[in-house]
Amino acid sequence: MTDSTAHALVEPRLNRRQAAKIRTRQKVLDAARSLFAERGYEPATIRDIAKGAGMSTGAVFANFQDKAELFEAVLTEDMTRLAEVVEAGSTAGDPVRNRLVEALSAGYHSSLDQLPLFQAIVARSWFQPLAAEMRARAATKKLQLAIGAIVQDAVTKGELRQDADVRLLVELIWDSYLSNYRRAAYDNWDAQALSEHIGKQIDVILAGALAK
Amino acid sequence: MTDSTAHALVEPRLNRRQAAKIRTRQKVLDAARSLFAERGYEPATIRDIAKGAGMSTGAVFANFQDKAELFEAVLTEDMTRLAEVVEAGSTAGDPVRNRLVEALSAGYHSSLDQLPLFQAIVARSWFQPLAAEMRARAATKKLQLAIGAIVQDAVTKGELRQDADVRLLVELIWDSYLSNYRRAAYDNWDAQALSEHIGKQIDVILAGALAK
């Protein structure tokens, strides 16, 4: 994923001060993303994030309450972007299996350069306050909806059985998708290997739901 | 899971000093397990573990290099015990789907009282040095072998297709099993709810592998 520019966010009617504030916030976010993507969560310090953004730690704290809030903001931006990549990744006319593999393969290809960030996201999702978990779920919801849209479309078209449990299928695909990042982290699998593997997993998951 | 007693480990030929050493080690492990199971990894301190075991921090460090090593020792003990529970949980003659649900349901029932420990195990599995990951895999391997034995048995008996990819099926079942602990952590699902859900997941995962 590439850094987003602040310009897209600046509406013409903002005054100079508001525009500067938004640019500063985005600079902090981009510096935080770089550091999280390089080191993960724990080793990334506010001091180093401030340094990366070329500002004081005070300026960082003027925009974000703490590292956890900063991390959540990065998570939300990145999941929104990844959902767009996944949505755009598949060709509408293809069989559902291929559409899912194309979409999730696009996801792997666009995110593996930020592997420690992904590891940190999943690790934190297992141990955080309930409120933080609910916000994280809202952020990843978009990605699951993108997977869900493909599965639902296949049901509508009659490629999958009318009584297929779309929600359960999406859950299984999503768990497999996430789980595979561990292969990248510990077994050096590249995006190609992950894509082949998710293909096999999807074949198993869909097998019983395919219309005869 | 209940605390194991030191006695089972003490072979008669050990002299008094060796036996005392093993008892001390087990006391530390049991105190650590209690604290990890109550608080998770980060908030559990060596000081509090020592206090729980009724000894000095020095005595803890005489047995374990650091908290990470202590956590790994707890993980290994608990996964061995959980694998035994899972292995004993299913009835040999039952259909493969039921055997898996029985086994994993036994797993949920015996581990939910240690939920924060489980959350910590999964969270750490996403962010740890490669060597630690390999040791953790060795510890959880027993559980996956217990699942694998049930699946393999069903292939051998012709209940599942001869060309079923046992390894892939076990991976999918395992990922679902673990993933469900999040429902317990954040959505207050009890062991019964988790067992019903893993049943649905197993139905989907096995659907294409069932012999016609």
Automatic annotation (TrEMBL), chains A, B:
Annotated PANTHER family: HTH-TYPE TRANSCRIPTIONAL REGULATOR RUTR, HTH-TYPE TRANSCRIPTIONAL REPRESSOR RV3405C
Residue ranges the UniProt entry marks as DNA-binding: 45-64
Top-level taxonomic group: Bacteria
Annotated organism of origin: Brevundimonas nasdae
UniProt KW keywords: DNA-binding
UniProt keyword DNA-binding present: yes
Classification via Pfam families: TetR_N
Coiled-coil regions, chain positions: none
PROSITE patterns linked to this entry: HTH_TETR_2 (PS50977)
Domain HTH tetR-type as annotated: residue spans: 22-82
Name listed for the protein in its UniProt record: TetR/AcrR family transcriptional regulator
